[in-house]
């Protein structure tokens, strides 16, 4: 109806194509999604070298890697589902973070059986590779997609933040959190954080959010109980 005040906005900083799916989930809870993807993803040419297993750290990696006959270890159930949807058959899921994925690999795979193929986005996966090598595995880290910082806030996000309509922001990784905050700062809107809750998918993301210097200070930083989107949206809850 004309003149109706829009509902409270929720800033969605996840990159596309996942941002649209998250926005739909936010809207189903009764909130108004405000899209502000902090990163722009683009697949890169990918050729799989010989390996005993493929490790996928994100849904974006699962989408970008051509299906092979390799066993797949996915970071979580959402990534595992994405891998199956793209043709992978032998897929096991970890409990949602890189440490759990390293534990899963150690419990199921033998360092003597060959290298592990780690498919990641640009700028991701180094800590996991180090953890796997510390367990005796040879790791082939290969880039499946590029992840570039967005250059500016979308106009609709800028307008919603400027008008004080955003009450919470969803953050999915340390890197995207840093990039999102850079966009907000560049737009001269850092002070708007004081009226927003920052909802983090993991303790590492929450740590990144809490480290931001003044004048950016969140009304609150809350952390999902499990490092997955369902748990993150539980923090938001229905309106």
From the structure above, extract its key features.
single chain; 239 residues; alpha/beta; Rossmann fold; six-stranded mixed sheet; five-stranded parallel sheet; elongated
Estimated radius of gyration: 19 Å
Determine the mean pLDDT: 91
Q: Which architecture of the largest domain would the CATH scheme give at its second level?
A: 3-Layer(aba) Sandwich
Instruction: Give the domain tally.
Output: 2
Q: What topology, given as strand order, has the largest sheet? A: 3-8-7-4-5-6
Query: What is the ordering of alpha helices and beta strands?
Result: EHEEEHEHEHEHEHEHEHEH
Please tally the β strands and state the result.
11
Structural class: alpha/beta
Point out poorly predicted stretches: 1-5
Kindly report the CATH topology of the largest domain. Answer: Rossmann fold
Portion of residues in beta strands equals 15-25%
Q: Could you give a short account of the major beta sheet? A: 6 strands, mixed
**In percent, how helical is the residue content?**
25-40%
CATH class categorisation of the largest domain? Alpha Beta
Q: How would you sum up the global shape?
A: elongated
So how many helices? 9
CA(first)-CA(last) distance: 20 Å
Description:
- This protein has two domains: 117 residues, Rossmann fold (3-Layer(aba) Sandwich), CATH 3.40.50.10090; 107 residues, 3-Layer(aba) Sandwich (Rossmann fold).
- The protein is of the alpha/beta class.
- α7 runs parallel beside α8.
- The longest helix is centred in the last third of the chain and has 13 residues.
- The protein is elongated.
- The two termini are 20 Å apart.
- The N terminus is likely disordered.
- It is 35% helix and 23% strand.
- A six-stranded mixed β-sheet has the order 3-8-7-4-5-6, sandwiched between helices. A five-stranded parallel β-sheet has the order 2-1-9-10-11, sandwiched between helices.
- It has nine helices and eleven strands.
